[in-house]
Amino acid sequence: MAGPNGGNSSGELMQTTGTLFILSAPSGAGKSTLVSTMRARFPDLKYSVSHTTRPPRPGEVDGKDYFFIPVNEFRAGIKSGLWAEWAEVHGHYYGTSARFLTETLAAGKDLLLDIDVQGACQIGRKFAQAVSVFILPPSMEVLRKRIKSRGTDLPEVIALRLKNARRELAKKKLYDYRIVNDRLDEAVDALAAVIARHRRQGKP
Fold first, then answer.
1. Structural domain boundaries in the chain
2. Residue (of 191, 22, 193, 189) closest to 105 by Cα position
3. What averages of pLDDT result for each successive group of 10 residues across the chain (204 residues)?
């Protein structure tokens, strides 16, 4: 995956042994459900838990869904080079541990990374052999209904998410694969097929 210039990446290409899978989608496209399903279907597929400064949503567990950290701690990580990628999305910081990525891949483990478009472009420049997948909603209207039905966002936040979704959808062609999440079972099978096709673990 090759992203546009910008972001927060050194651009240094890193050699890997395991396969890195990058999964991105606009808010409300069903990415979290697909991630949890893939982790159950491929139990030995490692998963990178991102760090974020946003507060936990109901049911989210620290260290499982995200590492929830203070803003000052995240900014210190930016200065010290802690993040392989980082971005500010919807007013909150999100980042991926560089050490976790490099150590996991160097050990020959395949790794699933759930990140936004900004972060995916940064990671794609560092890990040129990464396999990238973009999850699309059937339509913007369906996306709007999904976000609204969660009942967790104010109207202005929903409007911001939809605005960002349009911007992210404009970059879908940067990804190796694009899957429309209309029927969940079909999207699950399509994503599982991509992962199975590119996995290195267990291969000679």
1. 20-48+109-198
2. 22
3. 42 71 92 94 95 94 95 97 90 94 94 92 90 94 85 81 91 96 96 93 48
Do the Cβ atoms of 58 and 153 come closer than 8 Å?
no
* Global confidence as pTM: 0.82
Q: In sequence order, what are the residues at sequence separation of 6 or more whose Cβ sits closer than 8 angstroms to the Cβ of residue 40? A: none
Contact 125, 73 (CB under 8 A): no
Contacts of 34 (CB under 8 A, 6+ apart): 23, 135, 181, 187, 188, 191
Residue 178: phi and psi, rounded to 5, are: -130, 125
- Given a contact cutoff of 8 angstroms between Cβ atoms, the answer to whether 46 and 109 are in contact is yes
The token pair at 132 is 């990238």
| DSSP H or E run through 166 | helix 155-169
Architecture of the structural domain at 20-48+109-198: 3-Layer(aba) Sandwich (3.40)
DSSP 18: S
